[in-house]
């Protein structure tokens, strides 16, 4: 079998969850944090927001490298058309978790992959439905005390202690973690970078 040229992969994110996903696929990659402004205009739909921010991260990092495929992703939690970002303090985390408990919300993850050499890019998103079981105030406070919710959209981590609160999900689990693997695999394959072949060489 003739394997494709192994171009560098650059992840435009400092997220340890996204890095772990790529490592678990056996991929070699470097990390460059974009540091871009993550604000957005009012009136944008959740899918538009995550795609916009993923593209913005990739554009920023692409200016710093001369070759490779840059991967950018952004994730938000949406409940009743309200966007729940990362909590600003403990009280905010408590408010978010109280609103999410006993209900179903959506997690949107946007993804962009760009070939720096050609400027070609692919952008898309995945929506996953997550149902959280009912939680008592004391349980929520104990969870917040672990420190896990502090830097997570929606104030919970599905891959951590937060997993015990999840009743069911409909869609891509990895999208909720922060990086939609199926969509990423499709994009990389389109760029001639099949994960199954490249990962085996790492």
Please explain how this structure is put together.
The protein is an alpha/beta fold. The chain has one domain: Maf protein, CATH 3.90.950.10. Helix content is 34%, strand content 24%. It contains 7 helices and 7 strands; from the N terminus they run βαβαββαββαβααα. Strands 1, 2, 3, 4, 5, 6 and 7 form a 7-stranded mixed sheet that branches. Strand 3 and strand 4 form a beta hairpin. The mean pLDDT is 91.
Blueprint (SSEs and pairs):
Elements lengths: L8 E3 L4 H9 L5 E2 L14 H17 L6 E11 L2 E3 L5 H11 L3 E12 L5 E12 L4 H9 L20 E5 L2 H5 L3 H10 L4 H7 L1
Parallel strand pairs: 1-2, 1-3
Antiparallel strand pairs: 3-4, 3-5, 5-6, 6-7
What percentage of the residues does DSSP assign to strands (E)? 15-25%
How helix-rich are the residues, as a percent range? 25-40%
Q: What's the N-to-C terminus distance?
A: 16 Å
Count the beta strands.
7
Low-confidence stretches: none
The helix/strand class is: alpha/beta
Biggest sheet character: 7 strands, mixed
Q: Do you know the CATH architecture?
A: Alpha-Beta Complex
Could you say what the CATH topology is called?
Maf protein
Q: Overall mean pLDDT score?
A: 91
The CATH top-level class label: Alpha Beta
N to C succession of SSEs: EHEHEEHEEHEHHH
What count of structural domains? 1
Function: Nucleoside triphosphate pyrophosphatase that hydrolyzes dTTP and UTP. May have a dual role in cell division arrest and in preventing the incorporation of modified nucleotides into cellular nucleic acids.
Site (Important for substrate specificity): 17, 75, 159
Family: Belongs to the Maf family. YhdE subfamily.
Organism: Ammoniphilus resinae
């Amino acid at each position: 079998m003739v394997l494709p040229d192994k171009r560098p992969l650059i992840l435009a994110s400092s997220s340890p969850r996204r890095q772990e996903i790529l490592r678990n696929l056996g991929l070699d990659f470097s990390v460059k944090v974009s540091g871009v402004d993550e604000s957005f205009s009012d009136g944008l739909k959740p899918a538009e927001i995550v795609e916009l921010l993923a593209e913005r991260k990739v554009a920023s990092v692409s200016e710093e490298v001369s070759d490779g495929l840059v991967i950018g992703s952004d994730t938000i939690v949406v409940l009743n058309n309200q966007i729940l970002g990362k909590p600003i303090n403990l009280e905010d985390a408590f408010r978010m978790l109280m609103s999410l408990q006993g209900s179903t919300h959506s997690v949107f993850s946007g993804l962009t992959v760009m070939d720096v050499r050609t400027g070609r890019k692919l952008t898309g998103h995945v929506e996953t439905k997550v149902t959280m079981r009912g939680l008592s105030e004391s349980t929520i406070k104990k969870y917040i005390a672990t420190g896990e919710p502090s830097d997570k959209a929606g104030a919970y981590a599905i891959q951590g202690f937060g997993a015990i609160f999840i009743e069911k999900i409909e869609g891509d689990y990895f999208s909720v973690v922060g990086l939609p693997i199926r969509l990423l695999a499709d994009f990389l394959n389109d760029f001639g970078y099949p994960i199954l072949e490249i990962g085996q060489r790492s």
